[in-house]
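Need residues for this backbone.
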């Protein structure tokens, strides 16, 4: 079972659900939910709570009420307008790559419905409460075991598949360049441009997408948008082009996909252990 410490790291990735979320938060008013929002079963809500904690809680908080950089989804107009995942599903599957949100394109429909059920339930419970995003104490992040983290890092399918953590490797100095939440953010989903340690942020790198229409040659560009029906890209000349998914084949090449896949595997203990190991590498380099 995940511990309450996961709520403390609820702000690691800037996962926005559109400008409507920001407008709702800025006004301080919670959008009115649709009547259909309350028709979920307790089993769906419980299943959604568990899936949300595993996939989304590191940014939005276990209760969906937000973190230091992740928005409060109980105030989201997208959630308020959703009916059984019809709005939420598109955002989850497409992500917001330009704002640092990974695309969970393979998530099952039943999981989307369950997550939507949980979000509607959380919104109903939060409707009479006031409060803002949470702050995080550095002590909340320093609960891991470095030796266990090293085993996880070096194990089969672990971080060492792609990263060199030897004293001469570039990865060994990452904990000197980033501190606290910024370090954990880079570990979980290192979106290019999510600056830390005083670095100036640069625009995040968009995944590359190749679209092959039913009639025509493949077109490759930077992914601009994707939902269940449409994919849009920015081609080499800077033009925005969109395609219907039922009339084209789509292949997305995201260099950070391994980190997205890893998010579904981490336990709370794994996250803290690997973080402790990375921090220990910085100490070794300094000696």
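Answer:
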């Amino acid at each position: 079972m995940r511990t309450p410490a996961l709520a403390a790291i609820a702000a690691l990735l800037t996962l926005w659900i559109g400008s409507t979320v920001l407008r709702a938060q800025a006004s301080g008013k919670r959008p009115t939910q649709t009547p259909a929002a309350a028709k979920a079963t307790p089993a769906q809500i419980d299943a959604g709570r568990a899936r949300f904690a595993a996939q989304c809680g590191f940014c939005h908080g276990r209760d969906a009420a937000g973190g230091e950089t992740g928005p409060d989804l109980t105030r989201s107009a997208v959630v308020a307008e959703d009916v059984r995942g019809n709005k939420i599903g598109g955002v989850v599957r497409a992500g917001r790559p330009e704002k640092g949100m990974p695309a969970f394109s393979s998530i099952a429909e039943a999981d989307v419905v369950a997550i939507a059920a949980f979000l509607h339930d959380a919104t109903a419970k939060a409707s009479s409460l006031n409060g803002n995003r949470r702050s995080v104490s550095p002590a909340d992040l320093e609960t891991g075991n470095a030796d266990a983290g090293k085993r996880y890092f070096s194990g089969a399918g672990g971080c060492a598949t792609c990263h060199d953590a030897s004293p001469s490797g570039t990865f060994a100095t990452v904990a000197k360049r980033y501190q606290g939440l910024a370090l954990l953010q880079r570990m979980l989903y290192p979106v290019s441009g999510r600056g830390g340690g005083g670095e100036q942020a640069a625009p995040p790198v968009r995944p590359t997408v190749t679209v092959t229409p039913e009639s025509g040659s493949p077109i490759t560009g930077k992914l601009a948008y994707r939902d269940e029906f449409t994919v849009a890209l920015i081609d080499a000349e800077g033009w925005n082009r969109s395609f219907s998914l039922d009339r084209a084949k789509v292949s997305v090449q995201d260099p950070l996909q391994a980190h997205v896949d890893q998010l579904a595997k981490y336990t709370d203990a794994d996250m803290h252990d690997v973080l402790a190991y990375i921090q220990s590498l910085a100490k070794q380099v300094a000696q």
